[in-house]
Fold each of these.
Amino acid sequence: MSRTDNLYQLPENLPLPVDDGATNHLLGLQLPSIPLMSTAGIVVDLGSISDKTIVYCYPRTGKPDADLPKGWNEIPGARGCTPQSCAFRDHYQELQALGAGCFGLSTQTTEYQQEAVRRLHLPFNLLSDVELAFTKCLQLPTFEVESMTLIKRLTLIVKNGRIEKVFYPVFPPQHNAKEVIDWLSHHPQTNDR
C-alpha cells in the first residue's frame, strides 16, 4: 500500500504546538549517562560527549508504504519528522563548520530508524530511546498515540554534556536546522568552551 500524502511536505492548516512550559527545567541540565543505540550499531552516551552536539528529538518518522497513526495531523506538532530530518541533513555541513555534531532521537526502534537513515540519506546517526530511559530521566514532554509513547518535538544544543539551548515548541519543523545554525552563529562563545 502506498500513501496518498507527501511525507516530505507538511499539509496546510496543521494545528500549531504551544509552549506549555514542559521544557523549562532543561536549560543548564547535565545530560544523564544513559546508553542509546545508534543506527550505526554503536552505543552513544550523550552525557559524555564533550563536543558541541545538536540533539533533535522527534515523535516518529513515517514510511512511504505505511499509514500515519489515526488522527496524526490533528496532534499539534506531531507531523513533520521527515522534513525536519531532511533539513538537518541538508544543513549538516554548516553545522559541522560551526563545530557541532548532530543526532536525531526518537522512541522508535533502531531497526525502524535504520530504514529512515537509508531512505533519507542521513549523514548522521539516529538514536533510539525505545525504553524511554533518557526521556524519563530528563522528563522530556511526551504524548501517546496508538499505544506508543512519543517525544514531543524539541531540539537541544549541548556542550560538555550540558544543555545550553532548548528549542520548544519546534514549528515548522523543516526550519529548525536553520534556527539552530542562526543561534550557533550568534552565540560564538558556545563554539569555544
Amino acid sequence: MHLNDSITWFDGRLFAPDSPSTGSHGPSIEDFRLSGVALLETTYQGVQAFQMTMPTEAIQDPQRETLTDRDFMAWLPVDFSDGVIDVEVASELVPNAPGYARGFIGLTFRINENGRFESIYLRPTNSTADDQVRRNHSIQYVAYPDYRFDRLRREEPEKYESYAELDLGRWIHMRIVVAGARAELYLDGKARPALIVNDLKFGVNQRGGVGVWLESGTIAYFRNLRISSAR
C-alpha cells in the first residue's frame, strides 16, 4: 500500500511534509467537528492531549431506553477511503458511572455527509472482567447507524468482536489499516491484528472523515492522531 502523508495529525498539531510552517502552530479545537461532545486541550499522565466528554444527560438509562451505539465523537472532515489511522487513546469512567459503563472509546472512519460511518472501538473494563463472555467483547466493530453492536451480535455472533489486553487509565495505541472492504486493528504496536473485519458494511465506495468516538460513562483522552491515505 502506497501512502500519501499529506494528512497527518500529531499531538493535535497538523503537519504537511511539503510545508514545514504548517506544524508551527498549536492545535485548534475548531479543526474538529463535534457531534454531541465537548472537547478541550489538557494534560493527561504528563503529556498533552485532547479530553472529550458527553453531557451527563446524554448517558443512557437502560430503564428508559435500549442501550445502543450512537454518534458521539470529535472528527476531522478529511476525505479518507483507504489507508492507515493511528491514535493513542485512554479512558476513565465518569463519577457515578452506570453499571454498564465500559470506558467505551474508539475510532470512526469514512464518515460521510449523511453521518454514516464505520467504527472499531474498545471496552477496556471487559478485558479484565471475571467473566469470559464479557472478556470476549473487549473490541467491537460497528457500522453506524445500520449495524450496531446488538444487531451484529445477534445476527453473526463473535464475528465482529474479540478479546484484547486493555485497561482503564493507560494509553493504548490503536492502528487501523483500511483497504477496500477490509479493516485490521492493531493494538500497542503488536505485529498481529487484534481484530479483522473482511466485510465493512458500507462497502468500498464509502469515504469521508475520521474521528475519535466515545459512549456513555466515559471520559476520553486522545493524542497522536495520524491519518495516512492510500494513493
Amino acid sequence: MNTGNWVQLGPVQTWYAEFGDGDPLVFLHPGGVDAWALEPTVAGLASTLRVYTPERRGHGRTPDVEGPGLSTELTFAAMAADTIAFIEQVVGGPTRLAGCSDGGVVALMVALQRPDLVERLACVASVFHRDGWGGGMSGQTERSDFVRRLDDMHSADPALTPADLAELSVRTMVMIGDDDEVSIEHATEFYRSLPVAELAVVPGTSHGLLVEKPALCNALLLDFLTRDAVQTFAPIRRV
C-alpha cells in the first residue's frame, strides 16, 4: 500500500490511500481495524479499478473528533456523512462503493442518502439491521473505551427496514461467508428487499471471507463492479 494522503472532511482529518487506475471505487474497511485489513482485496481490485481506502473517524490514522460530545460522534450516521464528503471532495463524482462489515453498513447508508454518488454498491459481511448479527460483535470481558463505543454503536444501529431498502435504486451485491457472523437468513432478507440486487454466499468462509478466500472474493467483486448484469435464461425474481 502507498504512504497515504490526508483530507479535511468537516471536523475530521481523514487519512486515505489510493491504488491503481480506472474507474473509481471507494472501499470501506471493517470496524475496529484500519485500511490494512483490505490489503488482499485492494491487491486484486486495483489492477482494474482506482481504489480509495479512507480510514473512518477513530480508526487507524484518522483521529476521533475532538471536543464536547465525543462519545456521541462514533455513529454510523456520522461516518456516512464523512464518506459522502470524501466522495464529493476526493473522488469528485459518482463512484462504485463497497464496504466490509461496519464499512458495508456505512456504504449502504451513503447509497440510501445519496444514490446520485453511488454507481454500484457491494455490502460484504454486513447487515441492514443490528439484529442481523448472529454473534461475535461483542463479548470481550476486558474492553477498551473504543471497543465499548463500538459496542454501543452496534447496540443501537443500524435499524433500517425492508421498506427502507425498497427505496434504493442502486444495483447492489450482498456477499457473506457461509459461516459468517451475519446470518444467512438476514442476508437473504437483505437481498430480497432490494429492488436491484445480487447475492453471493462464499463457501467455506467466515466473517473474514475477504482474507480467507481472496481470489474467489475478488473475482466475484470485480465481476459485479466492472461488468453489466447478464440476461438470465430462467429468471424468477428478475422477470
